[in-house]
Structure formats: C-alpha cells, structure tokens
Specification:
75 residues, 5% helix, 4 strands, two-stranded antiparallel ribbon, mainly beta
C-alpha cells in the first residue's frame, strides 16, 4: 500500500474481508455484506481505530459540520 507518509516506497499490509453493520434503534441497520479492508497501525497513536472510506460512504449521505463539531450519517 502507498500512503502519503511512505511516498514512493510501498508499505506491506494485511487485507481482510469483513462485514460492516451500523446499528440503529429506529430503522434497519446499515449493512455491507463483504468489503475488503486494509490493516494499518498508522492512526492508533492519534486515537483512531478505523477509517471509513469512500467505498463505504458511497452508500450513505455523510455531512460534517466542523464549526458545531458534529457529523451525521444517513443511509
């Protein structure tokens, strides 16, 4: 995998097939049966455990309000 921090040098990373479910108390959960994810330790020191990328967000409406410091995710 290439990242901004590795430049032209690829970084080895494991890939996994996973299912994603985002539960909702009022509606059916958001579900993706199988997506490929890449393991990365790059963000753990910053407190991130997962990044949701465009392959997931293309199934949703994501809105970020930076001034109010909140986001909404609709599907």
């Amino acid at each position: 995998m290439y990242t901004p921090s590795t430049g032209n040098q690829p970084q080895a990373a494991s890939t996994y097939d996973v299912s994603l479910i985002i539960p909702c108390s009022s509606y059916l959960p958001f579900t993706l049966d199988t997506i490929e994810v890449i393991e990365s330790q790059l963000f753990l020191p910053q407190g991130f455990h997962v990044l949701i990328a465009r392959d997931v967000l293309k199934h949703c409406h994501f809105a970020y309000n930076g001034r109010a410091e909140y986001f909404t995710l609709a599907y």
